[in-house]
Give the backbone structure.
Amino acid sequence: MANVILIYGSTTGNTEELSGHVAVGLKQVGAEVMVKNVTEASVDELADYDAVVFGCSTWGAGELQDDFIDFYDGMDGVSLEGKKAAVFGPGDSEDYPDTFCEAVDILEEALKKCGAEIVAESLKVDGDVEPAFEESEAWGLKVAEAF
Ligand SMILES: Cc1cc2nc3c(=O)[nH]c(=O)nc-3n(C[C@H](O)[C@H](O)[C@H](O)COP(=O)(O)O)c2cc1C
């Protein structure tokens, strides 16, 4: 069974809340899941896991959530060959139609560049996160099944 690390960056708590629900889904197939705020995570520890899930909101105009920036920079040149991965995040298409959930795309590209295999289409939650809790659990389960 996969040994998974879920790392999230969250300014107002929305991605953090979603992370809890994604983790519930991931655990439904028996995966071991370590959930960490990116402020407490290091790129080096990714080596200890079979699979990686990133959760990140989008800020500025299409930028990574602040806390994720150093982590993202630290991924440059790192090999995640053989690891499986998936990405999710909340955004707001009404106020930011041109940069909706771009942080999710940025992290997906970064993971691919490091050699990780993206196993599922990213989950992009639009607006209020609460109505998406169930969907987040279902997405977590789908991802875990692909790990
Ligand atoms: C100043 C500001 C800029 C934002 N920029 C974007 C953006 O470019 N694209 C997007 O999809 N959402 C954008 N958002 C919406 C946030 O991503 C959304 O509120 C998210 O749920 C916050 O999650 P967090 O609490 O986990 O950080 C922005 C919100 C604010 C307040």
